[in-house]
Amino acid sequence: MLGNFCYSNPTRLYFGENALDFLKEELRKYGNTVQLIYGGGSVKRSGLYDQVCTILKEEGKTIIEDGGVMPNPTVDKLYEGCRLAKGHNVDLLLAVGGGSVCDYAKAVSVSAWCEEDPWEKYYLRMEDVGNPVIPVGCVLTMVGTGSEMNGGAVITNYDQKRKIGHVFGENVFPRFSILNPKLTYTLPKHQMTAGIYDIMSHIMEQYFSGEDDNTTDYIAEGLMKSLIHSSRIAVKNPEDYEARSNIMWTATWALNTLLAKGKATDWMVHMIGQSVGAYTDATHGMTLSAVSLPYYRLICPYGLPKFRRFAVNVWDVQTEGKTDMQIALEGLDRMEDWMNEMGLVMSIRDLGVEENMLEGIAEGSFVLSGGYKELTHEDLMKILKESMR
Ligand code: NZQ
Ligand code: ZN
To answer: Which of 91, 163, 275, 299 is least crowded, fewest Cβ atoms below 10 Å from its Cβ?
Structure first.
């Protein structure tokens, strides 16, 4: 049975080859000073930075440069962005880049006018926003996180060895997001496939919970099937527009709050993956791929009907003459084949994890209770050891 819920998403999305044409009319809704946020240089190499600057200048905007946002943005970078935003009293934070750039913009949005330390308030104490927020707009260049249409903002504090996401409310969602699938063509294969697995993981972590027959789970299965199909085309031909556009749209739907409506959610792969990230600064999607199979094989017996359904509905496993457990495990084997086909990282050792980090990574993994089994410390250590294969 679906639980009670309210669904609303305030982000205005422009999708397609000409999506950037709509930036002008969005800019007109905000004041004069725009903090232009981007990463380590991909937008300059692709020419997108120049295109966006031209549009900003044509609209008479004052540009406050805020480049160099790193993958897995840090708390120190956040403080720097806040000083800029507050110092120039900016009217709009325009994020041009991937999930890290969008997340960082949202973190600056809630932190610039915050009287307290934002790391402590939003990430350690998980408190709500009480101060004014600065509007965020987004031009997306990397697909996976869903950050373009949600309130998530993940920040890493390497001194404290913690990578933490805060899911902020609707007033922090991007006011608009511009999604042109062609802007993702320049992504290195490693980033494209990491993003593909991030999408898969977002869907699975909302799917593997509850045992009811509800619409949300059918939507999740459809999204997974579309993703698997398009991913196989995109790894062979990264410039296949149909595949890249399907992946981009699937990513948005995977984490724009829809799939979580009316049901419990799991999120343990992300909790473990983020803790791996706090120790290694590894690519987000790869931290998820490296820990997923040991996790799912461990919890499979506790959610057997759903794992059986996943095998049949998503991976087309034949059921004749097999037990439910055999069917369920065959589904996970098919997923493993697909992950290898994508070239995903399957071991945390390959991400730089060493044996002496495992206890700390387990300690840093927040244990949530929405999935089929609430993990013990021993469970976490077992998953991590198996992920060292
Ligand atoms: O920094 P630049 O030079 O732009 O290069 C980036 C970066 O090195 C590059 N890139 C992006 N677009 C490109 C490109 N290179 C060539 N052509 C392009 N078109 O790709 C690299 C990775 O970018 P990044 O933004 O870090 O990747 P992603 O989008 O995967 O974002 C990862 C961050 O998002 C958080 C993660 O934890 C991580 O910090 N997440 C945010 C979520 C949310 N808001 O809901 C949920 C996710 O689960 C995730 O946790
Ligand atoms: Zn993710």
So the answer is: 91
